[in-house]
Amino acid sequence: MADHCHNTLGLPSASLPAAVSQRATLAVPVALAALAPAFTGVPALAHDDTPVMRLCRKWEAMRAAEDTVWNEVSEATLEAMIVARSTLEARILKTPSECAADFAAKLVAFTCWGECVLSDAGAGQIWDDARTLLGRA
User: Fold this and answer.
1) Which of 30, 33, 63, 109 has the highest CB neighbour number within 10 Å of its CB?
2) Cα separation of 91 and 94, whole Å?
3) pTM, 2 dp
4) pLDDT of amino acid 9
């Protein structure tokens, strides 16, 4: 394991647990609950059966299938799989979020779990969704 984590600004990874106290850990659920009123009339808790979540489950399955056959199929077949997944990602972005979990799922799909950056190409839809969820549309 590396001595430094990319997300800790060069601090040794061993120092991170020391910096997180039990009090801070217990404060996280309280802070998340405090955010709930910001979502005007939209439940802040995850719902597994929203349109976005259903599409994201398909997206996860497509990603898993790509990973499974990555080195075993032709480049054309892999390209077709990627195009199909990209089409699904566009559908995910266009589907309105019903809760915070939907918004998070969109970010996951749009950035491939952080493997890709949030670019200008589709970021407008993401931020429009955020404004809608926060009642600032």
Assistant:
1) 109
2) 5
3) 0.61
4) 33
